[in-house]
Amino acid sequence: MAARARAHLVPAIQKAAPDMATTRLTIDVWADVLCPWCYIGEHRLARAIAQSPHANDIDLTIHTFELDPAVPATVQPTLDYRTVKYGITRIQARAMETGVAGQAAAEGLPYTLDRPVSNTFAMLRLVHLGNEHGVGWQYMRAMQAELYGGNPDAFGHGTLTVLGERLGLPAEEIRDVLTTDRYSAAVRADHAAAVASGASGVPFTVLGRRLGIPGAATVRQYTAAIDQAWDQLNG
Questions:
Q1: Which residues have C-beta within 8 Å of that of residue 68, sequence separation ≥ 6?
Q2: What is the pTM of this model?
Q3: What percent of the chain lies above the pLDDT cut of 90?
Q4: 193-225 confidence digits (pLDDT tens)
């Protein structure tokens, strides 16, 4: 399970960018499609950014973090996956999922308990393709919407291709990623960068290359972090 919300900021073990004649604030987010707290946290962060007076001066970048490389490529039910991974009963797994579903519902997000689970490495490589075209954040969130919305074919190449095409990505490039190891090194590099910055799970958010937030914070916490990072940037 991903890191949960924590009410404090921690310094990210990451060098600050060189001083530049700009007041733009960078926000870097590490996430995995399989991570329900990423799904919820990204939505909260997006709300905080939209409400911020600095919204037009924020550069948001999505990075990938494979939570569980051991997940097989075959599709299985979420509750089956939870029982094996955590060594719990099916009743306990459903209770775990129901708790997260309540958090998602409070945000107005769909959350299907009996959704599919599969390895996300191909999806994460596609996020890097999306980043190359400036739509990595949107691609990640589109994949999550399919998965948590309960699409049984959320991991299917056809679904992933359609989602990418809707964002303007060339179908041939999507197919190339899905049939090769393209961006594999980029996924691993993102993971290593997160760990070097102090992350032990996701979502992990770094603002202004200085302030790190582990877990899915509240909208209020993200808003406070944006204000703090902005003040540091312009102090």
A1: 34, 85
A2: 0.90
A3: 87
A4: 999 988 989 999 999 998 999 999 999 999 999
**Omega into 203 within 30° of 0, i.e. cis?**
yes
d(CA 33, CA 11): 25
Task: Report the Cα 59 to chain-centroid distance in Å.
Answer: 16
Tens digit of pLDDT for each residue in 154-192? 999 999 999 999 999 999 999 999 999 999 999 999 999
Task: Mark 210-220 as b/e (b = at least 16 C-beta within 10 Å).
Answer: bbbbbbbbebe
pLDDT band, very low/low/confident/very high, at 42 (cuts 50, 70, 90): very high
- Which helix (H) or strand (E) is 33 found in, with range? none
Fold of 10-68+119-227: Glutaredoxin (3.40.30)
In contact, 191 and 125? CB cutoff 8 Å: no
CA distances from 111 to 3, 148, 208, 218 (A): 18, 5, 31, 18
Q: Read off the pLDDT of each residue in 12-22 and give the average, rounded to a whole number.
A: 45
Token digits for 38? 């990423």
d(CA 131, CA 162): 17
Cβ neighbours of residue 204 closer than 8 Å, sequence gap 6 or more: 3, 29, 30, 31, 65, 194, 197, 212, 213, 214
Nearest Cα neighbor of 171 from 184, 161, 181, 163 is 161
- Enclosing H/E stretch for 218: none
Domain spans in the chain, listed from the N-terminal domain onward: 10-68+119-227
Q: Among 34, 64, 31, which residue's Cα sits nearest to residue 45?
A: 31
